[in-house]
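Entry 14. Structure prediction run on the chain below.
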Amino acid sequence: MEQKILVRDLLVRLANKERLYLLDVRDEDKYRAESLNDYGVPTENLPYLKMVEPDEDIQERMKELPTDRQIITICTSGNKARKAAELLREKGYDATSLEGGLTAWKQYHENGGNEPKQPAD
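Output returned:
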């Protein structure tokens, strides 16, 4: 079952001080260049492409992810975040992805607090 959260809903949950774990699943270079940290929202980084590798260090790092709060996965547009959230749910985590990713986050703020227009299916 696909799970995702809209920017405005994430902002409400953050404003309500819900204990969330925001996980940026883009590669390290993109994360360092720009992330939700730049907007005052603490975010960790674990690239999706590394999550699917059989690397022991990465698998150990995944085991350290919190089980006591929801993990919100974030990428540029939402695609990798959706896959990462699905992978984490398969491993027993409560995970969902940010719909539209960092792009939607920026557009939301640029549009004065309105969700960006989603393309019609």
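Residues 98 and 114 are 15 Å apart (CA to CA).
Filed with the rest of this week's runs.
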